[in-house]
TrEMBL record:
<protein>
    <recommendedName>
        <fullName>Methicillin resistance protein</fullName>
    </recommendedName>
</protein>
<keyword id="KW-0012">Acyltransferase</keyword>
<dbReference type="GO" id="GO:0071555">
    <property type="term" value="P:cell wall organization"/>
</dbReference>
<dbReference type="InterPro" id="IPR050644">
    <property type="entry name" value="PG_Glycine_Bridge_Synth"/>
</dbReference>
<comment type="similarity">
    <text>Belongs to the FemABX family.</text>
</comment>
<dbReference type="InterPro" id="IPR016181">
    <property type="entry name" value="Acyl_CoA_acyltransferase"/>
</dbReference>
<keyword id="KW-0961">Cell wall biogenesis/degradation</keyword>
<dbReference type="GO" id="GO:0008360">
    <property type="term" value="P:regulation of cell shape"/>
</dbReference>
<dbReference type="Pfam" id="PF02388">
    <property type="entry name" value="FemAB"/>
</dbReference>
<keyword id="KW-0133">Cell shape</keyword>
<dbReference type="InterPro" id="IPR003447">
    <property type="entry name" value="FEMABX"/>
</dbReference>
<dbReference type="GO" id="GO:0016755">
    <property type="term" value="F:aminoacyltransferase activity"/>
</dbReference>
<dbReference type="GO" id="GO:0009252">
    <property type="term" value="P:peptidoglycan biosynthetic process"/>
</dbReference>
<keyword id="KW-0573">Peptidoglycan synthesis</keyword>
<keyword id="KW-0808">Transferase</keyword>
Length: 373
């Protein structure tokens, strides 16, 4: 089968994406509206009969002072990654993007390589010999992942380095933590929580923590907690207009695409989080909390409510997004890994992000530019 790649309409792109059980929230058309510093392009793979067989949201970022672009497909494209003829999917994409001014292409194949159960992660944290997840025997491995990686290398693709928060150093986490929901009852989900998690959820319930859904008007409250979290955890926060734009853009595409949850106690919001949904996949996106009254466990109550709502809505996966792959005691993100492991889910490793230089001179200049920032 041969495919031709061309621009498709947002409507065609959305119809293709929503017909599948799981597509990244970064691969639906509205995500391009969330990123105004990038130019969004919907690409389609058309088969010999003109039907859309694959799709990808491409974000184009111009190189300073030049009309040349970095083309980025976060957690995409949505194609048949297990196909024996993977080249027939990727080569026409590279040709199209080269023709339209791209000097480098970066993508994140949505291909799972390995999984570790919560018990395996906890055992790794407790083992002084284990410094990273790769030092822990995986609970399961996906045999096709190694073949995909080999084919990408033979085509000239190379694994990208760690991504940053803005600019060209875009990047999505290679390791995430997910809770499988399909085929499980709510009681089974609760039993799957660690003992400490169940106790914390019980403490929150007994203390009277109430978790409710908020609206656009509650985003400033969320952002106040988010800014406090950023100062406490030492990261640069996104501004309030980013979340307002995200809310407006995603809900214009689908009213259920994004939700805001707020954990109240004694008249004060102590924790808040955004939740994204595409098909049967639900993501915990951004979270925030205050250091005040942590003893009533608002963050546990918040996550439990979101997990239950995802389950009730028919989701197959509740995705808590990125985790560190470092198990060392001195890693500041280890506490977050412990928190997520308490949900009883599993650590999931994807193939990571890959890049292809269409113009090696400009691609090299980009690397030099980033190294000096």
């Amino acid at each position: 089968m041969s495919y031709r790649v061309e621009a498709i309409t947002r409507e065609e792109h959305l119809a293709f994406a929503t017909a599948r059980p799981s597509v990244s929230h970064m691969q639906v058309p509205s995500w391009g509206d969330v990123k105004p510093d990038w130019r969004a392009l919907s690409l389609g793979w058309l088969d010999e009969e003109g039907r859309v067989a694959g799709a990808g949201l491409v974000l184009l970022r111009p190189l300073p002072k030049l009309r040349r672009y970095l083309a980025y497909l976060p957690e995409g494209p949505v194609i048949d990654w297990t196909a024996a003829g993977l080249e027939q999917w990727l080569r026409p994409m590279l040709a199209y993007l080269r023709q339209h001014g791209a000097f480098s292409v970066r993508m994140g194949p949505p291909v799972v390589a390995r999984r570790w159960s919560a018990e395996a992660v906890k055992a790794g944290i407790a083992d002084p010999r284990a410094r990273r997840l790769r030092d822990v025997a995986p609970t399961s491995q996906e045999p096709q992942a190694a073949g995909v990686a080999d084919r990408l290398r033979r085509m000239g693709w190379r694994r990208s380095g760690p991504g940053g928060r803005d600019g060209f150093a875009a990047g999505q986490p290679r390791h995430v933590f997910q809770v499988p929901l399909a085929g499980r009852t709510r009681d089974e989900l609760r039993q799957g929580l660690s003992g400490q998690w169940r106790r914390n959820v019980g403490k929150a319930e007994k203390a009277g923590v109430k978790v409710v859904q908020g609206g656009y008007e509650d985003l400033p409250v969320f952002h106040g907690l988010y800014a406090e979290t950023a100062e406490r955890d030492r990261f640069v926060p996104r501004p309030l207009p980013y979340f307002q734009r995200m809310w407006t853009a995603l809900r214009a595409e689908d009213a259920g695409r994004i939700r805001l949850y707020l954990a109240h106690h004694d008249g004060e919001v102590l924790a808040a989080a955004t939740m994204l949904t595409v098909g049967e996949h639900v993501w915990y996106s951004y979270g925030a909390s205050t250091a005040r009254r942590r003893e009533v466990r608002p963050s546990n109550a918040l996550q439990w409510r979101m997990m239950c709502d995802a389950h009730e809505g028919g989701a197959a996966v509740y995705d808590l997004r990125g985790i560190t792959d470092t198990l060392a005691d001195d890693d500041p993100l280890l506490g977050l890994l412990r928190f997520k492991a308490g949900t009883g889910g599993e650590a999931v490793e994807h193939l990571g992000e890959w890049e292809y230089p269409l113009n090696r001179v400009l691609h090299g200049a980009l690397g030099l530019y980033l190294s000096r920032r």
